[in-house]
Amino acid sequence: MFLKRFYVVTLLAGAVLGQDAIMATGTNFTLTGDAMSYLFHVDHASGDLIGDHFGGPTSDFTPPASIFSGGWHDALSNARREFPDIGRSDFRLPAIHIEHADGDTVSAFLYQSHEIVQGKPSLPGLPATYGEVGNVTTLIVQLYDNVSDVSAALSYSIFPQYNAIARSFSIRNNGSGDIVIDRASSFSTDFPNVDLEMIEPHGDWAHEFQTVKRKVEYGETTFRSSEGYSSHLHNPFFALVSPTTTEATGEAWGFSLIWTGSFAATAERFSNGYVRVLMGLNPLHTNIRVAPGASFQSPEAVGIYSSQGVGGMSRSFHDLYRNHLSRSKFTHETRPILLNSWEGLGFDINETSLVTLAGEAEDLGVQLFVNDDGWFGTTYPRNNDTLGLGDWTPNPAKFPDGLQPYVAAINKITVLNETSALQFGIWVEPEMVNPNSTLYTEHPEWVLHAGKHQRTLTRNQLVLNVGLPEVQDFIISTVSRILDSANIQYVKWDNNRGMHELSRPADDYTYILGLYRVIDNLTTRYPDVLWEGCASGGGRFDPGLLHYWPQHWTSDNTDAANRLTIQMGTSLVYPPSAMGCHISAIPNGLTHRNISIEYRGHVAMMCGSFGLELNPSELSPEEADVVPGIMAQAKRVNPMVISGNFYRLRHPDSSNWPGVQFVSADKASSVVFAFQQQYVVKPAAPPLRLQGLDAGARYRNDLDNGTYSGATYMNGGLNIAFPMGDYQSTLIWLERQ
Ligand SMILES: *[C@@H]1O[C@H](CO)[C@@H](O)[C@H](O)[C@H]1NC(C)=O
Ligand SMILES: *[C@@H]1O[C@H](CO)[C@@H](O)[C@H](O)[C@H]1NC(C)=O
Ligand SMILES: *[C@@H]1O[C@H](CO)[C@@H](O)[C@H](O)[C@H]1NC(C)=O
Ligand SMILES: *[C@@H]1O[C@H](CO)[C@@H](O)[C@H](O)[C@H]1NC(C)=O
Ligand SMILES: *[C@@H]1O[C@H](CO)[C@@H](O)[C@H](O)[C@H]1NC(C)=O
Ligand SMILES: *[C@@H]1O[C@H](CO)[C@@H](O)[C@H](O)[C@H]1NC(C)=O
Ligand SMILES: *[C@@H]1O[C@H](CO)[C@@H](O)[C@H](O)[C@H]1NC(C)=O
Ligand SMILES: *[C@@H]1O[C@H](CO)[C@@H](O)[C@H](O)[C@H]1NC(C)=O
Ligand SMILES: *[C@@H]1O[C@H](CO)[C@@H](O)[C@H](O)[C@H]1NC(C)=O
Ligand SMILES: *[C@@H]1O[C@H](CO)[C@@H](O)[C@H](O)[C@H]1NC(C)=O
Ligand SMILES: *[C@@H]1O[C@H](CO)[C@@H](O)[C@H](O)[C@H]1NC(C)=O
Q: Which major enzyme category is it (predicted)?
């Protein structure tokens, strides 16, 4: 029986402040966003939490669907549950699966009490959304399994402005023996019997964030990463949409997990048509022991509802993640134009050749010079990828006096048209080691390994077990020593393989917690360093790392045609302001495709961190002529990318004429990127209909210099005359008059 005397209702301070983001009427809970409601209640007979609604605004609790309850499926099988456990007649996948101290795996988490707090408590040791009182309100529901003496605290934080709910839970072992958590889904909710389609990212190295859409049928529609990291293969995100939803209209729900390790995402349709959503840890890598008196804290997952199509959902994620997830001071700042030494010099570097390259970079207007791989290793000089990883001491043959005088020489260069010094950045891959290294010779036990099983090499390297405190301390002190040794203003933190030999399934979980400890420490100590994540491209482009680092390298594929698709996909959930994108040389190293420098420039400047990944001395005369103009355009566009609203106008997978648009927050200006993939004699390019403008205002454009109403641009559109030839692009500015 559910016991009334257990209620704790904290009087809603919000009511006094004029806010009603969370209301508890008895134990009926209403979470209200600007254009969204999330309703659930306690079933008084059982104490179970039952879901009522997640969608557009509603104001009443109404009776659930009537489902014939004969046959094998009764009671909980036909309920919409908030925190499904195992046993007790629910045959769908659970959100929580615990092996109790006595070996029993049934759980019965029943309502005990709740409280509402203004603001949002932080999650110890985990990246999470944050917000002040007024931006976010939190409901914490305490559940208890009195058979096993295990409690659960479910947390729901609503950010009304973004129609977003951040969920997580903690499990406390109140018994006297160890329990083991085998499954933990941070977000779990049951949809009624409605038609839904799943939009899901998939891909691979150099092929990130392709998207597929499939119908959510009976059984499980599911994907996961088992690579130890969020990975290229999938990303911890999916959207559910109605079959009629488009980019700009209709209902869309997005689910995003703030976690960098293995994960699992599922939509399961049961016989009654209900669809259970689960987003959380991958059970294959979840076997987490919790001692008596100890707790397990799940990662956080965010659910967002939009009635403005897939684009509306994406923009809510962009704003939530820029304003309430990313904590770097650079998040809201324009980023320096960078040149990376890799394409130009590879491993064949030394102080002289790098300073020369930096001088050439400066002639183009580059503001940040990045020294990529190859700068370290003494006994095992990093002259190629077979050795040196782990030995983070500058190679004396390449830098006779260490990094300090070299970086000082870079800083003596003044940026073109500016008074500021050329900044210096460096590449590291501190979670990895080559067997050919002093570090491995001294600490072979520090790598992930499973007993006597062979330690599988990828790219000639092994993974340090960042779950070990001594490895965490090693990385913290090594990276700190590098940063203290010279004026380093940017770090590219790479990670180039997945986890192979996990001795215990939960080694991945412990590793990721250790990684967060390391990165939290370093970003707190070096807040003025601009950190960029990289994992063979977008292998860890996830909200966990975006909490600490403001940007991530999007893909090792810099072919502008492929990149457009990858960037569009990435923008489903992550803001373009967080993407790193560079112009590289042609023919492209991967695809051998030749695309004009303008098109490559336009695709790269759609991202917050724009740069060059080429040898300036190898630019053709025609390219060299237009590069200064492209650099100037990129600088002008950057503030729009950093703080503007982003619209996918047409997608390269479904149109020969893709387009995107940024609109400033005050709607006073907008920049449009329009592309033609293949030249065709017929048909005509369709008008490019814009979005997000003030319909009644008049905007002047620099395409035909006309001044038209926002409504004209949005309902009529722009007719763009592309020149003949494949891969043409244009950039159009609109200014409100
Ligand atoms: C657990 O709680 C239920 C419902 O309140 C009650 O019926 C049952 O007796 C309790 N069991 C134990 C072991 O306390
Ligand atoms: C809670 O909602 C149920 C319907 O789900 C309704 O029957 C009940 O009266 C509501 N309780 C309160 C206290 O409003
Ligand atoms: C958070 O709330 C404060 C106070 O209401 C407001 O000034 C601020 O703009 C909000 N921040 C965001 C990012 O919405
Ligand atoms: C959990 O155990 C502590 C003592 O270890 C006890 O005080 C507390 O009441 C228990 N909690 C519940 C919900 O039974
Ligand atoms: C630096 O590298 C360049 C290019 O490989 C080479 O020509 C030059 O001799 C090197 N300088 C030193 C001091 O090693
Ligand atoms: C530098 O200034 C020149 C002359 O004003 C201008 O043409 C060029 O575009 C500028 N370059 C950059 C990168 O700002
Ligand atoms: C890699 O560099 C080392 C050290 O300079 C050298 O001995 C080795 O031959 C190189 N290996 C390859 C495959 O180039
Ligand atoms: C160690 O380095 C040598 C020289 O480059 C290379 O031939 C060998 O394959 C490397 N060993 C491993 C395990 O990568
Ligand atoms: C970072 O970790 C070191 C030990 O590895 C510790 O001394 C220091 O206090 C930590 N700093 C922060 C900001 O967490
Ligand atoms: C690309 O351009 C290069 C140099 O201009 C040329 O040699 C090559 O054939 C071109 N490749 C393609 C696929 O057009
Ligand atoms: C638009 O105006 C600019 C500046 O006044 C001019 O350079 C450009 O040629 C004009 N474009 C058209 C299509 O009239």
A: hydrolase
